[in-house]
Design goal:
Layout lengths: L2 H19 L4 H8 L3 H8 L7 H11 L3 H4 L5
Helix pairs in contact: 2-3, 2-4
Length: about 70
């Protein structure tokens, strides 16, 4: 697995975990953040590398800091 693929997979797992901890569905997170439903799915599946702005919007919707979001190992 390429390093970028592993990063995207880990990022998706992180987002999924935070979303589930918040008790939100994919659709609820999309609506709350203003990020498209399809984009949220693609991030969680590790199929896309989101911009920092998209991650910021998702973190705001999850009431989670951007700096804490990136505290993971891959």
């Amino acid at each position: 697995m390429a390093k970028d693929d592993k990063f995207k997979e880990t990022l998706g797992d992180r987002l999924r975990g935070l979303r589930l901890d918040a008790g939100l569905t994919l659709m609820q997170l999309a609506e709350k953040s203003g990020v498209s439903y399809r984009t949220v799915i693609d991030i969680e599946k590790g199929e896309t590398r989101p911009s920092v702005e998209v991650i910021r919007l998702l973190c705001t919707a999850l009431d989670y800091s951007l700096s804490d979001f990136f505290k993971f190992k891959y």
